[in-house]
Amino acid sequence: MKKIIFSPNTSISFFSKRRERRFKKSNSSLFSMEGGFILVLTLGFLAILAANALILTEFVNRRMELHHNQKTRFLVEKLASAGITAAESILLMDTNTYDWFSDIWVKPKHMEFPEGSVDITIEALDTRFNVNSIINRDKSFNTQASTIFSNLLSVMGFSSSLLDTLLDWFDSDDFPRVFGAESDYYGTLSPPYKPTNGPLDDIYELAYIKGFTPEILLHSPQGKGLLDLLTTVSDNKINVNMADPIILQAMGYSSESVEKILNERELRPLSIGILMQIDRQTTSSLTRVIKFSSSYFRIISKAESNNITFTRSVIVQRANNKITRLRWERN
Q: Do residues 259 and 249 touch, judged by C-beta distance below 8 A?
């Protein structure tokens, strides 16, 4: 048998080569792990950059959209204001001594501009009953106006007790009527409040008065609500040329007389002579309430541009060939 003899130099060389092979293998694994780690870091960094770029793009787009919307909103506000001015001019163009359904201001107006559109509606407020006419300036009550309001409740099928709560809201004492309410009632509500003891500042104030529920105030598929027929702005007279049939009945005209009035005013504007022929007695009792023209109007201007809308509403008075803005309304 042939022997292999290791010399000291041979032994050192052999083990050195083994260590070198192990070292290279170990380094190769280490380099592989480091490469993978660097790749993960690189990919993570790139993902962060991509996310930041997306966020930045979204932020820029939002800012541009916001700027565009602000610019468009400013534009529609200007268009709505222009609609108010146009409506006032239309009202001044009507120089008739009466106001009737054929007048130029009655039909809604639609105007197109390169920047957007405007829709204008004008409503005569003195075709309604002024609920504040119930209380006189000296805080006494107007019997005729109270009767008209009581009739209105009856015609609409509402409880007559609402007159008591309304009168208690108007009067300055603290003694409730039979069906009324004073501070001792309103003080128990949450939050508590007190009656104004005077005329209404706004027709929507009725919602604070006992018994005047949304079902009574607001119109529904079943019919109109009180807010459709009442106002707080007028000279306390009613333009019978355009008044709702319910208002005509509340004024005291019978159903038959109301039908005749409606038939007459489809053909021509009414006059005191026509009303006397229809119902002399009732007309004679209403001479201080009846009129045939309007002085108080609500103008609503709705502007639209790029799917953004803005509405302005104002109450105006027309007198002496001049328009006076009385009150801007909430929209």
A: no
